[in-house]
Structures are given as structure tokens and as C-alpha cells.
């Protein structure tokens, strides 16, 4: 069994993944697939924190564009992430993997509040931490949450799980000639306008030297490959390459 290159990771899951082909609601089969992939990595001894989005249920920007108050829409989106987090926790625990949900907005009946030291202690004890409700503040994306939590929890890498094989110069679902980047720098994703994450998240990762691996979650074993250091997806770091 290959030894892991990374001993503590932060996995970023978009809400759309939870919705499966419909991109809305909760797809039990997809949630089970996600849980299996996480469990495989956990069994290698890697400590795991997961940040979940909520776009499969509600997205604050969508509400804002329809005339809703932006802060209200963002809080609704944060609550949506809690639903996804609880669904993932349930799937993991049914497979025998211990998990804890921590939220940035207190709701003690369903989850623990996010406390940095407690989250680290959970990981050290072999529990998977699922982080919900974003940063607890409107106007911040779950990508920014992932970058912030990765820095707070001393994660060695952010693995951003998507439905495509990495970062492309255009949408590979629409354009067959889309070019995949094997490696990019933080500045390149900003300068090229590659919408893999927002500028706040990219800047946080750049300032704290946290590499990001963007990969296809739905390809079996991809997360495990990334954790052991195999080449998969697109690596984003401070290094500039000739793509």
C-alpha cells in the first residue's frame, strides 16, 4: 500500500455534486460514492477535513439576482450546506467511518460549533471533520471558506473535487477542444480568468502557500491518487509553468 504524501488534507465539495445528474437536491447514490472515496483515503491514515457547498439546494447569488437581500440569501445558502454535511456524515458513519459536523453558525441540536482546536483534536483521533455554514458571514464563498479553514487547520493541500478532470481553458462539457492544464500558478488562474475559485480564495492560498489539486471526484480512486502524490487533475501552486 502506497504511503500518503499528504497527512492532513482539506477536501472541498461543491453542492452541485450532491445533486447528481439533476444538480438539485440530494442524490443518495452520489453521496454514497463520495463517502466511499473519503473512507478509502481515511484508511491510509490521512487526516481529513471537508468543506461542503450548498448550491444543490440554494445559492445566495441566485436569490440576490432575483431581488432578494444578498445577506439573507447567503445565510440561506449557509443553511443549505448544513443539510449536505449531515447527509455526508450519515453516509460515512453507516460505512463505519467516524465523522463530526462543525458549523460556523451555532445550531447545537444538530452539530458542534466550529472550534479550531477541537477540529484538530477530532482529526488527530481519526475522525473526519465536515465543515458547514461557510465562514458564518455573508459575501464569502465556500471556496474562501476552504482556503480559510485549510490555513487554520494546517492542511497541507486543498483537494477541490469537481465533475471534470482538472482545470481547462474553457468548459470541457461544451467544447471538445478544451485544453487541460496540468499545472498552474495562483496568479495564472487570476490572470487567465479561470473561474475555478474566487480571487479571495486564491489570494488566501497564495499568501499561505497552500497548494490546490483540482480533480474529478467521480473517477474512482482520484482522491486517493492525489493523496499519495500521483499525478492527477491540475495542480495549482506558486510555481509558474509553460502550459
What does this protein look like?
There is one protein chain. The model has no long low-confidence stretch (mean pLDDT 93). It is built from nine helices and eleven strands. The chain starts with 7 loop residues before the first strand and ends in a 6-residue tail after the last strand. The chain has 243 residues and is α/β, with parallel strands linked by helices. The chain has one domain: Carbamate kinase. The longest helix is centred in the middle third of the chain and has 25 residues. The strands form two sheets. A nine-stranded mixed beta sheet has the order 4-3-5-2-1-6-10-11-9, with helices on both faces. Strands 7-8 form a two-stranded antiparallel sheet.
Name some characteristics of this structure:
243 residues, alpha/beta, Carbamate kinase, nine-stranded mixed beta sheet, two-stranded antiparallel sheet, 9 helices, 11 strands, 19% strand, globular
Itemize the secondary structure elements and their pairings.
Elements lengths: L7 E6 L1 H4 L9 H15 L4 E6 L7 H6 L4 H25 L4 E5 L8 E2 L2 H9 L3 E5 L9 H11 L4 E6 L4 E2 L11 E2 L1 E3 H6 L7 H9 L4 E5 L5 H7 L5 E4 L6
Parallel strand pairs: 1-2, 1-6, 2-5, 3-4, 3-5, 6-10, 9-11
Antiparallel strand pairs: 7-8, 10-11
Helix pairs in contact: 2-4, 2-9, 6-8
Number of helices: 9
CATH-level-4 superfamily name: Acetylglutamate kinase-like
Overall mean confidence score, pLDDT: 93
CATH fold node name: Carbamate kinase
What distance separates the N and C termini? 32 Å
Number of separate structural domains: 1
- C-alpha-based Rg, rounded: 17 Å
Task: Please tell me the CATH architecture by its name.
Answer: 3-Layer(aba) Sandwich
The tally of beta strands, per DSSP, is 11
Largest sheet: 9 strands, mixed
Helix and strand succession?
EHHEHHEEHEHEEEEHHEHE
- Kindly estimate the percentage of residues that lie in beta strands according to DSSP: 15-25%
What structural category arises from helix and sheet content? alpha/beta
Instruction: Give the strand order of the largest sheet, numbering strands 1, 2, ... along the chain.
Output: 4-3-5-2-1-6-10-11-9
Q: Which spans have pLDDT < 50 for at least 5 consecutive residues?
A: none
Morphology:
globular
Amino acid at each position: 500500500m502506497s504511503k500518503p504524501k499528504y497527512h492532513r488534507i482539506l477536501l472541498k465539495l461543491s453542492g452541485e455534486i450532491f445533486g447528481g445528474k439533476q444538480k438539485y437536491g440530494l442524490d443518495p447514490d452520489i453521496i454514497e460514492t463520495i463517502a466511499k472515496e473519503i473512507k478509502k483515503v481515511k484508511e491510509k491514515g490521512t487526516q481529513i477535513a471537508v468543506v461542503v457547498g450548498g448550491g444543490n439546494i440554494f445559492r445566495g447569488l441566485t436569490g440576490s439576482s432575483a431581488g432578494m437581500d444578498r445577506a439573507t440569501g447567503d445565510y440561506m445558502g449557509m443553511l443549505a450546506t448544513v443539510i449536505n454535511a449531515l447527509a455526508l456524515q450519515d453516509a460515512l458513519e453507516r460505512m463505519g467511518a467516524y465523522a463530526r459536523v462543525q458549523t460556523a453558525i451555532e445550531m447545537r441540536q444538530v452539530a458542534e460549533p466550529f472550534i479550531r482546536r477541537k477540529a484538530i483534536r477530532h482529526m488527530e483521533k481519526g475522525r473526519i471533520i465536515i465543515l458547514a455554514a461557510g465562514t458564518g458571514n455573508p459575501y464569502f464563498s465556500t471556496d474562501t471558506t476552504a482556503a480559510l479553514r485549510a490555513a487554520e487547520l494546517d492542511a497541507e493541500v486543498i483537494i477541490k473535487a469537481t465533475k471534470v478532470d482538472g482545470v481547462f481553458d474553457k468548459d470541457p462539457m461544451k467544447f471538445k477542444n478544451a485544453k487541460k492544464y496540468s499545472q498552474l500558478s495562483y496568479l495564472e488562474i487570476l490572470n487567465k480568468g479561470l473561474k475555478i475559485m474566487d480571487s479571495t480564495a486564491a489570494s488566501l492560498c497564495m499568501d499561505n502557500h497552500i497548494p490546490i489539486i483540482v480533480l474529478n471526484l467521480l473517477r474512482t480512486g482520484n482522491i486517493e491518487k492525489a493523496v499519495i502524490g500521483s499525478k492527477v487533475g491540475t495542480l495549482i501552486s506558486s510555481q509558474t509553468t509553460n502550459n
